[in-house]
Amino acid sequence: MPVASRPACRPVPVNSDSPGSMTTAWDATRWRAALAVLDRLLPLTPLERQAWLTVLARCNPTLAADVVGLLEEQRAADAEHFMEDEGKGS
Amino acid sequence: MEELNVPLSLLDDTPLRTRQSIPMPPPVHPAVPPAESGGQAPAEALFTALYGELHLMARRELARRGGQLALNPTTLLHEAYLDISARTRAAFPDRHRFMGYAARVMRGLIVDYARRQRAQKRGGAFHITALDTDVAIAAGGGPELEALSAALEELAAIDPRLAQVVDLKFFCGFSFGEIAAMQSVSERTIQRDWEKARIFLYRVLRKDQLPQ
């Protein structure tokens, strides 16, 4: 996957909750923005993801932080085998 | 519920699974709506046409509970039928949306059933329901199932397709390949959807466990 598919620097509306915060619920707009970025990042290698996020962080640091937080959640979910028996390897 | 239409050709879709071990359904309704219906297939016609796959879905959904719920798959399926057919105007644009909807209905019935079981075990009032007439009472279900189901509803409000993938994958045991074929997308797309949904659910369920 070429890193050329880097994010366009367009503002994405998010609420005023701190980036990556888990103390309050995200609204649907914030979730959709983060999930859209995840959709682009998940097929990439870690290095490609990092490059993508670096660019994104320059133009939308809140969204970038949200996505970084979700990728950390993914690692935690993997470590806990969250829903893993049904989702892996089939 | 949103009203949708379905082309008759969708009823001829190749079954994803063998039906060798699946009992034939009772003649509930004609499998295919009449041509004069304008090519629309109401939910009950789809239900009849896809009975074998739906029965397997019910069996898998219950099997996922690890035997904790001694709900009969046929009873679950027929309860789902009653729920779906009660929505007399419901029709679906394609097969996979109907299967996703049926999976969601079954999940809701299982959650309701588990909730009633817990209430009865706590000594609460005994509720007579259609489901209880044909099932053995057993332990199981648990608040985790309810929390997961509630989180799935949140996800459905944000991205219905992601929630549907979870219903079909996690609750009904369809493989990524089967879901991809059902939805006419690539398997990698479904795998990505699954992963996004899993991250969402992990975040939401974990957030609920944090002190407020």
Any overview of this molecule?
- The complex is a heterodimer of chains A (90) and B (212).
- Chain A has 90 residues and is mainly alpha-helical.
- Chain A contains four helices and no strands.
- Chain A has a domain at 46-90.
- In chain A, helix 1 crosses helix 3 (61-79) and helix 2 (46-59) packs antiparallel against helix 3.
- The radius of gyration of chain A is 14 Å and the shape is globular.
- The two termini of chain A are 23 Å apart.
- The model of chain B is unreliable at 1-39 and 125-141 (pLDDT under 50).
- In chain B, helix 5 (142-158) packs antiparallel against helix 6 (160-171).
- Chain B is built from eight helices and no strands.
- The A-B interface holds A 22-23, 25, 28, 31-32, 35, 38-39, 42-43, 70, 73-74, 76-77, 82-83, 86-87, 90 and B 64, 157-159, 162, 169-170, 173, 175-177, 188, 192, 194-196, 198-203, 206-207, 210.
